[in-house]
Each structure stands twice: as structure tokens, then as C-alpha cells.
Design a protein that fits this description.
globular; Rossmann fold; single chain; 347 residues; alpha/beta; six-stranded parallel β-sheet; Dihydrodipicolinate Reductase, domain 2
């Protein structure tokens, strides 16, 4: 019988409460043992079996804890991960991995020295639409890919009073949604040749980046990553164009809304997108034929199931720290590109 891994979750804000806690609780072989939070009543209401602590050091020091999940503000990711690894715990860090490449390398070195698994929660690899896109690309259904347009737009005209929107290290949309967009692009096409980023502030009262438009240049492909905060009606998620046709996808994967609404992961039709996208195929005579894409279900639980196997059986983690480091290299290059207003070679 496989052992049960005791998990300590640090932070019970949006990431901890909506994503990590429900997914941990729904993954066989994992037990949400401890939550480090300043809101014990909130934790107890949803997870009465979990112990609530105020100090993360208590969780790090507890020999019963196998895995520490860090879902705290971005500027705390590296310090907390280093302390947990020093105590011999396996570690998951919510995206972004760190504030910069130097921190990410330090964390990887600490994990190697401790002989522990270090992974980053790039859950959007298990979005239904990305799984569909990856399948189409790998099957060659679109021919030779020329362009990928990847959007993660929102309409949030009011600037909220939260740490993500206040000036400071790790704040802003490039650190928030950028890692998702970048990680998906790297999974499809690998490292780019160059990065050209336009990071801006568009909303009245904005103090951090709330507009992202980034081009990743490859030898043949161009990948355009876009995230805006003043986009009320566009709805495009992916547009992919190749020598054999195009694929268009509107609307976001449904799992986040389901989790926000309190749905339990794994219920009936979990992760099934009602808008699976449209494939446009070019015939020999040049005519274009539309056909719906077969629905593929997304499932964020696959991340934690893979992580459990990595810890217990020594299999590769679902997201390696090396892959997450590459994402941080693109994030950092994008910041430099924006500051210098030019394309910067990558690598």
C-alpha cells in the first residue's frame, strides 16, 4: 500500500484556497495535514481536518510533514522554499518560481543538496484547451506552425487593493499571468531565439504592469503572448496558424471558475470545456473547411498525482525545476526587453 504524504500548505489566499487546498484534498495519496494561515476560521470551514498554524517554521520543523506547498506572495517564494528545503521537505512553489533567475538557481541548488523534489505549479499545462492544442501540434494537424497567438485577457477596469497590484517585487501581470503563457509556449516549441516585450500600465490608477504583449521569435514560428486588463469582449484564447490550417479557441478552461464556485475536483464532466475550439483545414483546391475539435477534458489533479509519484517512486516531477527556471529566464529577458525597448537574444 502506498504511503500517505502529509502536506503543509503555506497561505490561504486565492491560490491556496481556490487551487491548492481543493486539489490536494482530492488527490489520492495526499493529506492536507497543515495550513499556515492568519485566518483559521476560514480554513476550518472548508478543511476541518487540517491543523492551522500561524508560523511556517512550525510546519518546517514537524517531522510528520513530507511536502510543503508555498502559495504566498511572490516575493516570499524563494525564502520560504529555501527554509523548507533546509529542513528536508519536498517543495511545491506556486508560479512564478521566483523573482529572478538568480533566486531560481539558488533554490535548485538547495533542492539538489537536500535530495528533495522541487517543483512549480504550472497547472495550465492541464487546461482542456492547451491539451487540445498540444495534441493538434504533435499530430501535425495544422502542418508546419507559423504563428501562435496566446491570450489571457480580462476586463478588470478597477485596480484592486491587493499585493499583486501594488508596487513591489513580483507584482503585476507579467509575473501573474506571464508564467502561464510562457510555460505553455516553451512546452510546445522549446526555447526561443529572442524575446521582444511591451509591458505597460493602462488602467487609471495602475501602479504595476497590467498590459503584456510579448513576441517570442523562433527560426520559423512567431509566438505572441498577450494579457490585458481592459478587454471586455474579445474572448480569444488561442489562434494557431500553420501550412495545413488554423485552430481557433475562445473562452478559458472551466476549472478555475468551477474551483472558485466551490466545486469538488473530479466531479461529473470535470474539466470539460463547452467550447472546444474550431479547426480550419485547407483543402487541395484552397477551400477552407471548418470542423469542431473533439473535446478533451482538463484536470489539474494530474499535477499533484504526478508529484506524488515523483516523491514516492522517484519518477520525474510533472513540472521540473529546470523547466521552471527556463520560464523565469524568459520572464527576466522580457523585463530587460521592455526596459530597453528592443528585442533581446535569448539564452
Amino acid at each position: 500500500m502506498s504511503p500517505i504524504l502529509n502536506v503543509a500548505l503555506l497561505g490561504y489566499g486565492l491560490a491556496g484556497r481556490v487551487f491548492h487546498a481543493p486539489l490536494i484534498a482530492a488527490t489520492p495519496g495526499l493529506r492536507l495535514h497543515t495550513v499556515v494561515s492568519s485566518a483559521p476560521e476560514r480554513v476550518a470551514e472548508a478543511h476541518p481536518q487540517a491543523r492551522v498554524l500561524a508560523d511556517p517554521e512550525q510546519a518546517f520543523a514537524d517531522p510528520d510533514i513530507d511536502l510543503v506547498v508555498i502559495a504566498t506572495p511572490n516575493d516570499t517564494h524563494a525564502p520560504l522554499a529555501l527554509r523548507a528545503l533546509a529542513r528536508g521537505r519536498h517543495v511545491v512553489v506556486d508560479k512564478p518560481f521566483a523573482l529572478d533567475v538568480a533566486q531560481a538557481r539558488e533554490m535548485i541548488a538547495a533542492a539538489d543538496a537536500a535530495g528533495r523534489v522541487l517543483s512549480v505549479f504550472h497547472n495550465r499545462r492541464w487546461d482542456a484547451d492547451f491539451l487540445s492544442l498540444r495534441g493538434l501540434v504533435e499530430a501535425g494537424a495544422l502542418g508546419r506552425i507559423a504563428e501562435l497567438h496566446s491570450h489571457f485577457d480580462r476586463f478588470r477596469p478597477q485596480v484592486p487593493d491587493r499585493w499583486r497590484d501594488r508596487p513591489g517585487p513580483g507584482a503585476g501581470l507579467w509575473y501573474d499571468l506571464g508564467p502561464h503563457l510562457v510555460d505553455q509556449a516553451l512546452q510546445l516549441f522549446g526555447a526561443p531565439l529572442a524575446v521582444h516585450a511591451d509591458l505597460g500600465q493602462q488602467r487609471e490608477g495602475a501602479q504595476t504592469v497590467d498590459y503584456v504583449h510579448v513576441q517570442l521569435r523562433y527560426a520559423h514560428q512567431r509566438v505572441l503572448l498577450h494579457a490585458g486588463s481592459l478587454v471586455p469582449g474579445h474572448g480569444l484564447r488561442f489562434a494557431v496558424h500553420g501550412s495545413g490550417g488554423s485552430w481557433l479557441k475562445h473562452g478559458l478552461d472551466p476549472q478555475e471558475d468551477a474551483l472558485r464556485g466551490g466545486a469538488r475536483p473530479g466531479g461529473p464532466d470535470w474539466g470539460r470545456d463547452p467550447r472546444p475550439g474550431t479547426l480550419l483545414r485547407v483543402h487541395d483546391d484552397g477551400s477552407v473547411h471548418e470542423q469542431p475539435t473533439a473535446a478533451v477534458a482538463g484536470d489539474y489533479r494530474a499535477y499533484y498525482a504526478g508529484l506524488r509519484e515523483a516523491i514516492i517512486d522517484g519518477t520525474p516531477p510533472p513540472v521540473s525545476a529546470t523547466e521552471a527556471l527556463r520560464v523565469m529566464q524568459v520572464i527576466e529577458t522580457g523585463i530587460a526587453s521592455n526596459a530597453q525597448r528592443r528585442e533581446i537574444a535569448f539564452g
